[in-house]
Amino acid sequence: MPQLNPNPWLFIMILSWLTFSLIIQPKILAFTPTNPPTNKTPMTTKNSPWTWPWS
What we know:
- The protein is 42% helix and 0% strand.
- It contains 1 helix and no strands.
- The protein has one helix spanning 7-29.
- The longest helix is centred in the first third of the chain and has 23 residues, at 7-29.
- The chain is elongated and about 75 Å long.
- One of its GO terms (biological process) is proton motive force-driven ATP synthesis.
- This is ATP synthase complex subunit 8.
- InterPro entries: ATP8_metazoa, ATPase_protein_8.
């Protein structure tokens, strides 16, 4: 059965994971975010109940 032959596919999988882990991932993680999180406390808004005209 050719599906069980790991000859070319195992090498391709290992090579692609190594490429991602060693080359692409550090380049992606080196980017600085354009909108960094801030330490502001969120504002709390006071919710008033809705007055229904038919009740």
